[in-house]
């Protein structure tokens, strides 16, 4: 795993944040969860868009960022993202939702996503996304 800059390792820059990871690949879900934990971010995981949407709707105020796979069973990432945005929950319109995909996305923002994380993802790219949305 890639090492972060020494100044980052001394403290946890995102301590106290909470993320939702919606990913049907258990290996990718575990890797993202471990990486976020190393940055001081706790997380909930969901194996598909239906479960992810249910977790979000049961406590939307607890999530500061969502990492959303696109191709999943039951409810895909596009539909789950649309439903989060249309939920009417406080903060749903501004919530950073990061699309996780190896394929390029057309107009990311029209699809409801804030940014894309290309798969396979590099830790430096995850850190950059975290910084852009969660840094004080």
Structure description:
The chain is an alpha/beta fold and about 140 residues long. It has 5 helices and 5 strands, in the order αβαβαβαββα. Helix 4 links the parallel strand 3 and strand 4.
What's the overall geometry?
globular
User: Number of helical runs?
Assistant: 5
Structural class: alpha/beta
How far do the termini sit from each other? 26 Å
Helix fraction, binned, reads 25-40%
How much beta, percentage-wise? 15-25%
The major sheet is characterized as: 5 strands, parallel
Mean of all residue-level pLDDT scores = 89
Return the string of H and E elements: HEHEHEHEEH
Radius of gyration from CA coordinates: 14 Å
Strand order of the largest sheet: 2-1-3-4-5
Number of strands: 5
Q: Spans with pLDDT under 50 lasting ≥5 residues? A: none
Search tags:
136 residues, alpha/beta
Topology of this protein?
Elements: H1 6-10, E1 18-22, H2 26-38, E2 42-46, H3 49-58, E3 65-69, H4 77-85, E4 97-101, E5 115-118, H5 123-134
Parallel strand pairs: 1-2, 1-3, 3-4, 4-5
Helix pairs in contact: 3-4
